[in-house]
Amino acid sequence: MGAWDDLGMPRSSNDQVPAEYVADGVWPHATLAPGAPVSAYYGQAFARNLERAMNATGHTLRSLAEVTGVTHSTVSRVLNGKVMPDLGTLARLEAAFGLQLWPGPAALPPDFMRP
């Protein structure tokens, strides 16, 4: 439960998981490949925000799982760019930290071509 690439959970597009778009560096602080989709930028920014929130509060994967009901493996997969969180997971994580983790359009680079 909790991620858009879980078995039985269809993807809404043909996008790969966010970390597949790394061109240089280490996820989530890497440079993304030219032509990376919106989902890769959002996933990267979300992972950075989650990492920052966990560091600021001292939460580990397991302590965050206890507080939120989101499995530690799902949190790890989100942090590592292997999945995008579903809305329930997003809501639980944001509620646990009391702040917005989802980046919105600010995640996109200034030169990103918008439709």
In short, what is this structure?
This protein has 115 residues and is mainly α. 41% of the residues lie in helices and 4% in strands. β1 (22-24) and β2 (31-32) form a beta hairpin.
Describe the structure.
The protein has a two-stranded antiparallel sheet. Residues 4-10 have low confidence and may be disordered. Helices cover 41% and strands 4% of the residues. With 115 residues, it is mainly alpha-helical.
Q: N- to C-terminal separation?
A: 32 Å
Number of strand elements: 2
Structural class: mainly alpha
Give the mean pLDDT.
Answer: 90
Question: For the CA atoms, what is the radius of gyration?
Answer: 14 Å
Strand count, sense and closure of the main sheet? 2 strands, antiparallel
| Overall form | globular
Strand content: under 5%
String of helices and strands: EEHHHH
Low-confidence stretches: 4-10
Helix fraction, binned, reads: 40-55%
Number of helices: 4
Trace the largest sheet across and list its strands.
Answer: 1-2
